[in-house]
Amino acid sequence: MATEQQEHLKIEQLRQQSADEIETIAGREKENLEGWIPTLASDAEIREALEKAFDYRGDVTITRKDGSKIEGYLFDRRSGTSLSDSFVRVIPSNERTKVNVSYSDIAALAFTGRDNAAGKTFEAWVKKYWEKKAAGEKNIQIEPEKLD
Amino acid sequence: MAVPVSQAWTVATYVLKQKLAGRKRYPLVLMLEPLFRCNLACAGCGKIQYPAHILKTDLSPEECFKAAEECGTPMVSIPGGEPLLHPQMPEIVAGLVARKKYVYMCTNALLLKEKLHLFKPSKYLSFSVHLDGEKEHHDFSVCREGGHDIAMEGIRTAVAAGFRVTTNTTLFDGADPNSVRRHFDQLMAAGVESMMVSPGYTYDKAPDQNHFLGKAKSRRLFRAILSNRKKSWEFNTHPLFAEFLMGKRNFECTPWGMPTFSIFGWQKPCYLLQDGYADSFKELMETTEWSNYGAKSGNPQCANCMVHSGHEASAVDYNFGTLKGFIETAKAYMFPSTYPDQEAEKLLNEWKPAHAMPLVQIQGATKDQLQPVSGD
């Protein structure tokens, strides 16, 4: 789920208008998180960064306090009352398993994978369409990413 | 009738059993996502934006069957990703059909014609083809020129081979109700059994975040589309859900109505929002803070949602939960209304294709450039 910061456009819109009156609802703010290495100095910073990692559309790399690293897709987080009873769940990029990492074991976090939706807005597609159309191309499309 | 009598009977008896058992929360349709990989890359889709290792991972047939048995719904919808890219999809569908589940396999139909021979016609199986509108609108919506023609060919081939074929249409800001109505005519002429239409949802993970309908525009749009409807149109959505879309009645969300299972587990709380995952259906039902979701919760992420996955289950529950609901539903099925509405007619006549209709909003595109594709 997006954080309050990411949802601030919608929250602001809803402060000014009832949901029943809104014509076009605001989407999530586009944050460029790719490559981000958040500071994890306080509990609040750790929780905020991991919430964003949960929301991220690419892989992240977690460095544990024992120095071991895990790179993969952070698909879930379970927030408890303290860092030690909160944990993230990661599917590593090289195996099909689910790994739990306690918030209190995390020394560093990096958004190392590519944001898989960045640059693929509707406007970007339409712009690309007209450029290709003008160049005489046919069967124009946004092609799905190659997986291998 | 938009669904076979046996399906309507199965669903009705299932819901009545839940009611008689005193279950306050029960699922209606399992949304089974066996993969996230897709052969389209739609800007408005919030389902496929994952790293390659996630996109390459599939649920096994056994995992799919276990999920179906765990939640026990009479209907299973298979979205994704594109199910026809799953190498074991015929086995998954056959296994669900053998369990007497009514399966809606949601497909963009790009591969339907070539893979049709892998499936067997059955009253339990329907191909639910994703078509977002007439040719230009659909092709722009799915970001692929020519997608509409391939899908229509797939529909015709499947219908000719004796399969049940339904359609699902998602509308975003910029949808033209006159065009959507023509689209319905085209679908019925192609022989589809029935159609579903729903507004798009503001997926967090969707690349495009600027074209999601708000409730005011959704209601106006659906009133224009679904009022004064043609008798030839068949819809496979609950008639009271259609009235909800048209702004004629209100339903709160039933987020547990269509639980979603994927390689991550059981998605909390619903098909649309990703607020974590449970490892079992029981855990999903028992540990989700349901009061945090739905329009009345004040959750901004639920504020504009009018999607079928949350609200059609509410219509069904109202149908069986109250005498008034039962009578209203019975009336809607026995004496289907065309919803005559002069104001809706006026809306249609005065509707101007809006900014989001892609071919008229592009800065720098001249009128001459627009003509070949849009037909404007």
Biggest sheet statistics of chain B: 9 strands, mixed
Question: What is the molecular shape of chain B?
Answer: globular
Helix content of chain A: 10-25%
Number of helices of chain B: 15
Helix content of chain B: 25-40%
Oligomer: heterodimer
- Cα(first) to Cα(last) distance of chain A is 29 Å
Radius of gyration of chain A: 19 Å
Structural class of chain B: alpha/beta
Side-by-side strand order of the widest sheet of chain B? 6-5-4-3-2-1-8-9-10
Low-confidence stretches of chain A are none
H-E order of chain A: HEHEEEEEH
What is the distance, rounded to the nearest whole angstrom, between the alpha carbons of the first and last residues of chain B?
36 Å
What's the count of strands of chain A?
6
Mean of residue pLDDT values of chain B: 91
Radius of gyration of chain B: 20 Å
Could you give the order of strands across the largest sheet of chain A?
5-4-3-2-6
Structural class of chain A: alpha+beta
Q: How much beta of chain B, percentage-wise?
A: 5-15%
Largest protein interface? Answer: A-B, 61 and 63 residues
Structure summary, number of beta strands of chain B:
10
Describe what this molecule looks like in 3D:
The complex is a heterodimer of chains A (148) and B (376). Chain A is an alpha+beta fold and 148 residues long. Chain A contains 3 helices and 6 strands. Chain A has helices spanning 8-16, 43-55, 122-134; strands at 24-25, 60-64, 69-78, 87-92, 99-102, 106-110. In chain A, strands 5-4-3-2-6 form a 5-stranded antiparallel sheet. In chain A, a hairpin with a 6-residue loop joins strand 4 (87-92) and strand 5 (99-102). The longest helix of chain A has 13 residues, at 43-55. Chain B has 376 residues and is of the alpha/beta class. Chain B is built from 15 helices and 10 strands. In chain B, strands 6-5-4-3-2-1-8-9-10 form a 9-stranded mixed sheet. In chain B, strand 8 and strand 9 form a beta hairpin. Chain B is globular, with a radius of gyration of 20 Å. The two termini of chain B are 36 Å apart. The model of chain B is unreliable at 356-376 (pLDDT under 50). The chains are: A alpha+beta (148), B alpha/beta (376). Chains A and B meet through helix 1, strand 1, strand 3 and helix 3 of A and helix 2, strand 7, helix 9, strand 10 and helix 15 of B. Strand 1 (24-25) of chain A pairs antiparallel with strand 7 of chain B, so a sheet runs across the interface.
